[in-house]
Amino acid sequence: MSSSNPYCEKAAESGFALLNPAGEYTRFPLVGKSRPSVLDLAFANPHLLPLVKNWESSLPSTGSDHLPITITLAAPSLNQEPPRPRWTDTDWETLDPIIKGFKVPAAPSCPTPQRLDEWMSESLNRLVALLKEHTPVSRPSHHSKPWWTPHLTILRREYHQAARAARKHDTHHMREVATTSKAGYFKAIKAAKNKHWSSFLLTATPQSLWTAKRFAYGRAQPRFPSLPGAETPLQMNNVLLDHFFPPKEPFLPPPRLRPHKSAPPLTTDEIAAALSKCSPTSAPGPDGIPYSTWKQVNKINPSILLQILSPLVLLGYHPASLKSSNGVVLDKPGKPS
Fold first, then answer.
1. Where are the domains of the chain?
2. Quick check: pTM over 0.70?
């Protein structure tokens, strides 16, 4: 074991991880005259390590001391989660003067549906791009934990340093330090989990009770209906859309949109009242912007949404950019076992 310490140190410095305990017997022969086989060291770099599910030595010997090792690799995910904006961390201090000076281009007078769609999309895209530019993003991962703290990062670093030092020097004192560091690290993890759960329950709202129930019962196994001719999520999505929203004959819009003189003008109070009824925890639309951000935009400069929505009310037209939405198939959770 001591002869392999330089290899472990060099691998740790280069970012490689040890897959197996060094020097352990991996195969015990049935014949008493033969000696056990030993797999010395097996390393993997950070790019391969997430793909290694397990390895085993269940195959028979190929002769002498050679033993084939079966390694099971997980298929790489081709569709990685895209970066998600952290809307709670939007830089409103910088955005405040920019939104106050944001100018919506004038709507076309007596427009066609196509020209009004283009004007609507251009105005919204400029505003959405401005909001996303001043909002940090993060790539979600199944390793991300809401209870993780910077203190745990320091304890994890100290624990791994102590463990490497114990393997390198192999003294009684260093082994005690590594054991104490490991116990303190896992104790801090347990305390962080309990603190996060207590804080979550204390600040629970009627909207977050379903989340608390899901955490308490645990995550259920995903269950999806078996639909004929639908194996992938995209095929299932198309089948459900065709079933619940069958295609209809295209509706020919009028060549020109005429203003409705009897339509009352839209006011900022109506927009604020409509936004006040929208929950900030509701799922956002295709633009990915939650209602809490739109409320803040309207609070800083109420004329933006007023100028964008007023022509739609006056012309009685619903643009194509507002007709798309996100659909989610909900799986009814079963009773906890």
1. 2-73, 87-136+258-318, 150-203, 211-246
2. no
